[in-house]
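INFO batch 0412 | record 1 of 1 | parsing
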Amino acid sequence: MGAIRNRSLGPTILVALVLAGLLIQAAPAPAETAAEHALALVRRQFRMHRPPPPYETYTLIRVQNTELGYPDYVESYKYHIWIRNLDRAALGRKVFRGDYRGPLEFLRPAFNEPWDPGPPSADVFEPAPAHPHTIAFVPTPEPSGTAPPLIATVRAVGEFEYRVTNMRTERDLIHLSLAPIRDPDRNRLRELYADKKTYELKKIVATDKLFVPGFDPYPVIFTYTIGMLNNVPVVTDLHGVVDPSYHGDGEQVDYHFRDITFPSTLPDWYFEARQYARHQNDAPL
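INFO prediction complete | emitting tokens
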């Protein structure tokens, strides 16, 4: 009985499997839209310049007003920063008038963290962290190597974290409006502006956060201006607008990244806070 039953079901199962295979083959892959293709090209062009050089120096200038609209001299300042991009460990010194400098400070520049954003060569496609980190957190280094070629037959719709809600041409730029497919708190890009011929990024609009002790983080919208230095895309300016639910100093804030360089090397002690005390006399200005 068991053997007869198995023989009778065998052909049925075989036919079902064949039909299922035909149905799978017959289902066409979703067609990629022109907007999705443009997003793929913009991101790939940006990735072609990654990772950034190992070392970077720059001047960070922060400018904001008080809640009453007057210049906020406490939270408006300038820093000289030397960073190792592998782990974003950085030495910072506050700049005052003349040659006077503040003490040596260990920094970890990053976006969407409870400190100043940076560095200029940051990966603008990187998702925001799931939760705020401490300055001791060491990020995973970026992979190195040449980006693989973009082949139409293997590029799949939905490979990105965003869908393109609108695409239009504005003079020499292509403007893409984005909506996160999932996790909008981490997938932070909202608008991309790129050269319509080269697909190099020129400007982006992205979300960020203002961290105020004792309160939940306030949403911030940052507009990035992006330039090119030594074939590396760099953020040169940021304009931030805090959510209207926030009332206080710095409802709008501007950051300017100036004097950006990519030195071939920097002293190791710059990135070891425990060594700062013994290097007071040979510290950079």
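INFO post-check: The radius of gyration is 25 Å.
INFO record closed
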